[in-house]
Design brief:
- The chain is α+β, with helices and mostly antiparallel strands.
- The chain has helices at 13-28, 38-45, 49-61, 111-117, 162-173, 192-198; strands spanning 65-68, 72-75, 80-84, 100-107, 125-134, 137-146, 180-189, 205-215, 218-228, 232-236, 242-246, 249-253.
- The chain has two domains: 13-75, Arc Repressor Mutant, subunit A, CATH 1.10.10.10; 80-253, Chorismate lyase (3-Layer(aba) Sandwich), CATH 3.40.1410.
- 25% of the residues lie in helices and 35% in strands.
- The protein has an eight-stranded mixed β-sheet. It has a two-stranded antiparallel ribbon with strand order 1-2.
- Strand 11 (242-246) and strand 12 form a beta hairpin.
- The radius of gyration is 22 Å and the shape is elongated.
Length: 254
């Protein structure tokens, strides 16, 4: 059988415009700046408005643009780095932590988290909710699961709920000597509650980073952080190691 030569496929107009617009965003616009309206942009680049919309939608999908109701289309800030595989370990809420505590309640953890904590599925744990912001916009939401046995001194603290309770859990957790932590990263879809908190539609792509904290020879806390995939990028520490999860199994990459 002979070899079939495929003819080159011409680049779609919207994709070429996407490249031109991307270069213009780097040179002509500042972060947070509002773009001109579609009619003016289409005239500036000499394209149909339908072509322009396709290019803008692609750039929004890539995280270069943000469409905000009542404001318009603005230039998105640079992607926030999500450090994985770093050698430096620290407790949530330690000095330099950029997460903001929002709330704390006692609830049953998901089965997968209960397995990591080695607790019964019906055993309630302290669940701290935190958010991470950049340029005034939410980019990540986290649930930190802490069994009562990890923070025994919390019972004497009069902070029943809310932000004060969340901070109290974080302070008590830091009383333990952190022996290490590990992380796994996987691509997922935003659930309804995550989507609302991150200002995205349900089903939007997200990065899910699960961190286990070890002390006293056991797992004492598990954090599940959901990052907007359009605003974040993975960065690697000196070890270069990250847990890659696929089809329910994990393997170590380096």
């Amino acid at each position: 059988m002979g070899t079939t030569q495929l003819e080159p496929v011409p680049e779609p107009k919207y994709w070429h415009l996407r490249t031109v617009l991307s270069e213009a965003l780097d040179s002509d616009f500042a972060v947070g700046e509002i773009l001109p309206n579609e009619r003016d942009l289409a005239a500036r680049f000499g394209v149909a408005r339908a072509t322009l919309r396709q290019a803008l939608e692609q750039l929004e999908l890539e995280g270069r643009l943000q469409r905000r109701r009542g404001v318009g289309t603005t230039v998105a800030p640079p992607r926030m780095g999500v450090a994985v595989g770093a050698e430096q370990h620290s407790w949530p809420g330690a000095s330099g932590d950029t997460w903001q505590p929002v709330d704390c309640a006692e609830a049953n953890p998901p089965a997968a988290v209960a397995g990591l904590l080695d607790t019964d599925a019906d055993e309630q744990v302290h669940t701290v909710r935190r958010t991470r912001m950049t340029h005034g916009q939410p980019v990540a939401a986290e649930l930190l699961y802490v069994p009562g046995g990890s923070v025994p001194g919390l019972t004497a603290i009069g902070a029943p709920a809310g932000t004060a309770r969340a901070r109290a859990v974080l302070r008590e957790l830091q009383r333990l000597d952190l022996e290490g932590q590990d992380q796994s990263v996987e691509l997922g879809s935003a659930r309804a509650d995550d989507a609302k908190e991150l200002d995205r539609l349900p089903g939007a792509p997200v990065l899910v980073v699960t961190t286990r904290y070890f002390a006293e020879g056991r797992t004492v806390a598990v954090a599940v952080a959901t990052y907007r995939a359009d605003t974040c990028r993975l960065t690697f520490g000196e070890s270069g190691g990250v847990q890659i999860t696929h089809a329910g199994e994990g393997r170590r990459a380096s």
